[in-house]
Amino acid sequence: MTDTTQKKFPGWRLSVAPMMEWTDRNCRVFHRLLTQRTLLYTEMVTTGALIHGDVARHLDFHDVEHPVALQLGGSEPADLAHAARLGAQWGYDEINLNCGCPSERVQRGAFGACLMAEPALVRDCVKAMVDAVALPVTVKHRIGIDQGESYEFVRDFVGTVAEGGCRVFIVHARNAWLKGLSPKENREIPPLRYEMVYRLKRDFPDFAIVLNGGVTTDVQIAEHLQHVDGVMLGRHAYHEPWALAVWDAGFLGAGHAPATAASRSAVEEAWVAHLDSLHRAGQPWMSAMRHAMGLWNGVPGARRWRQVWSDHRLRGESPRAVQQRAAEAMRQALAETSTG
After folding, report:
1. Which of 103, 149, 274, 326 is the least crowded, having the fewest Cβ atoms under 10 Å away?
2. Which residues make up each annotated binding site?
3. Cα separations (Å) of 188 from 172, 173, 176?
4. Catalytic residue selected from 27, 99, 101, 125
5. Where are the domains of the chain?
6. pLDDT band, residue 254 (cuts 50/70/90)
7. Alpha-carbon distance 167 to 120, whole Å?
8. With the CA atoms of 176, 182, 186 and 189 taken in that order, what torsion angle do they form, in degrees rounded to the nearest 10?
9. Where does the UniProt annotation place the signal sequence (predicted)?
10. How far is it between the farthest Cα atoms of the chain?
11. How far apart are CA 22 and CA 144, in angstroms?
């Protein structure tokens, strides 16, 4: 694929996947300290939660999170149009429809991966949202459902949904098995078939095709970008967050210097300032800190650092005080290593 083709869809070149109970607003603030240009996604928010629940609780976010996309779960066009309008009102940069989650809880709500069996309904949902907002409306889906291996299935799904106005498809390169596998097993057992995603790009050159699933290194990112418009990473980005720190310079056109240990310390300092603001507001900062536990992975003393930050006996202390304890634990670990 030529650079010219990719330049048509620069906003989706790299992104962090929506992950339930993980990519909340505090997680996204932390990720934004590491990368300014990577596209971030919310956890999935159902239309029912927005129609019947506390809208602000589900949609509020920090301005620093931009660019940030709202992922919706639902299957009623009118409800999704209403939810999309709320997302636009709240200031999100994109509305994404979840057609990839295989969990039985999501299936009971008649959305997620089971929607791939109803492409005409997804088309109508997309059209309702496209008509309701001026934002990009995108779809995240799998390459198939259950154990079918037909490329024509996903090709026809994309072709039908595109009739509703979708031009960006984020494709998890595994099937979703709707019965018999847990969500975790659905991320590991169905085989990855990247060539099917590449083929979608060849068959739909005017659409943005973003690949998701099993990507864990910058080398892999670079290889996939030879074939598709973008790459979305999920659990690797969450558990190894420092990987994000080189993406702006390495893939997104920013002229930043490569990440260094000194800049890792600067990220920690800015993150602790955020935690302190939560603490002063009376919010539980330790639940936010869990998103940053991988910050020092691979650095001597990181295990001791994590142990201090995860010690629930310290949850009543200020984050700044805990930071000092963690730094001292890291220094002691380094001293023991050098004298051992």
Report:
1. 149
2. 18-20, 71, 140, 172, 212-214, 234-235
3. 12, 11, 10
4. 101
5. 3-251, 261-339
6. confident
7. 16
8. -120
9. none
10. 67
11. 25
Q: What angle do CA 32, 36, 38 make, to 5 degrees?
A: 85
To the question of domain 3-251 being in CATH 3.20.20.70, the answer is: yes
Cα separation, 236 vs 15, in Å, equals 12
Q: Can you read off the two tokens belonging to residue 20? A: 């339930």
Cα separation of 309 and 304, whole Å? 9
Alpha-carbon gap, residue 29 to 6, rounded angstroms: 27
Q: Within 10 Å of residue 149's Cβ, how many Cβ atoms?
A: 11
User: Average pLDDT of the chain?
Assistant: 93
Find all residues with CB under 8 Å of 230, minimum gap 6, and list them: 9, 12, 13, 14, 15, 170, 208, 209, 210, 211
Task: Give the per-residue pLDDT at 4.
Answer: 46
Tell which residue, 255, 265, 259, has the closest CA to residue 292: 265
CA distance 222 to 226: 7
Q: How many residues does this entry show for the chain?
A: 340
Taking the whole predicted model, whether its pTM rises above 0.85 is answered as yes
Pair 176, 196: CB distance under 8 Å: no
Mind listing the pLDDT tens digit for each residue in 160-171?
Answer: 999 999 999 999
pLDDT digits (tens, 9 = 90+) for 127-151: 999 999 999 999 999 999 988 889 9
Residues 6+ apart with CB under 8 A from 63: none
Annotation marks residue 99 as catalytic: no
Per the DSSP assignment, residues forming a β-bridge with 172 are: 142, 212
Instruction: Answer whether 12's CB lies under 8 Å from 230's CB.
Output: yes
